[in-house]
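Task 17 of the worksheet. Students: predict the tertiary structure of the chain below and write it out as C-alpha cells. Keep your answer in the requested format; marks are given for formatting as well as content.
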Amino acid sequence: MVMPPARTTPERILLTGATGAIGGGLLPLLLEGDAPVRALVRDPARAHLPAEVEVVQGDLFAGEGVGAALKDVDVAYYLVHAMGRGNTGDFEELDRRGATVFGEAAEAAGVRRIVYKSGGLSGDRT
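Model answer:
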C-alpha cells in the first residue's frame, strides 16, 4: 500500500456556527491545536471572536461568502441551523438549502472532510 506524503503544514479549519452554543464551545478546543481556524459569520462586528480566528463575512443561507471561507480549507465544521432567522418560512427547507450550498462549495474547494451536526428534525425524541 502506498501512503500519501506527510503534511508539512497543519490542516486549515473552517468553523461555521462559531457564535452559537455548539460552535462557541468547540472553538476554544480547536484553537488549542496547531491548525489555523477561520470562521464564517454574518456580522463580524457582533461576532466577538478571539483575535487568532480569521473571520470571513458571509451568509450561508444566501450563499454569500461561502466559497471564500472554504478556500484552502482541509476540514470544515458545519454547525449552523436556520432556526431563529425570523419569519423566513420553513426553517427545515432553509437548513436543507444551507447544507446543500455548503456541501457543493466544499466539494468545489476540495475540502477533505466535513463535520456535520444535524438538527435532529427526523422525529428522534431520545
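Marker's comment: The longest strand covers residues 37-41. Helices lie at 21-31, 44-47, 66-70, 91-109.
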